Amino acid sequence: MLMLSSRVFPAVLVLGLALAACQSVEKKAVTDQVKVVSDSGLVCNATAEVEKALDKIDALTPASTVADAESAGESLKKALATLDKAEVELQASKLNEYRDQVAIYEKFVGQIRQNKTMTLEEAAQQLKAQAAPVIAAHEQLSETTDCIEVEELMDSDNQASSGKSKDDASGKADSE
Fold first, then answer.
1. Which residues make Cβ contacts (< 8 Å) with residue 54, sequence separation at least 6?
2. Residue 21 falls within a domain, yes or no?
3. Residue 41: which domain range?
């Protein structure tokens, strides 16, 4: 009896782990999508630090000291290392998200196979809809990260609103 239970326990343990892994493919995909967004933010922050370091180097003058130049160089070196690390993490996150989307798609394909009453047209429509996230995740792998600076957004909003108010003011003057 002891022999049987010692064989059953590992099998139950393996089955439990397999069920836990299968259960949350979708949850893992959501977690990995959040990680991509978070890592994109890290890349943007690191890019901003590189730009600040480059500004320090650009601000060096003939009156600057060697210590100033070394400090600016160290700032750039540190910022570039941080950027490299952030980009590696982002790429890994994008790859994980892509793999998650492929796993979800494969799971769905398995479900489609089980439905023997479904027409080929119905299956094709459903598969096409399920393929869209896989395609988007694949395209995301090769995309570069676009960072939008808050100042740029504020400036464009201010220009749009100031341009609008000028038009409104001139329109009122014309109507009087």
1. 76
2. no
3. 27-156
